[in-house]
Write a structure and sequence with these properties.
The protein is α+β, with helices and mostly antiparallel strands. The protein is built from two helices and three strands; from the N terminus they run βββαα. It has one domain. The protein is globular and about 30 Å long.
């Protein structure tokens, strides 16, 4: 069970490797997606970001972009 990334047409999405469902924002690169996941882990230690509500993922993205 983990968060993975997948690329389609030059964009990168996060997905749950167990369920196969994508979630969260779309990124321009693998590095951006990895940076976002690492930022989320720092912001919410011990919390699985797959459990965050969409609104929380949006707020997290804004905070990540401002960091």
């Amino acid at each position: 069970m983990s968060v993975r990334t997948t690329s389609v047409e030059g964009k990168v999405a996060l997905f749950d490797s167990t369920t196969g469902f994508a979630f969260g924002p779309v990124f321009d690169s693998d590095d951006d997606a990895d940076s976002y996941v690492a930022f989320a882990a720092q912001k919410f230690p011990g919390l699985d970001i797959r459990m965050l509500h969409v609104a929380e993922l949006v707020k997290l993205r804004v905070a990540w972009m401002d960091a």
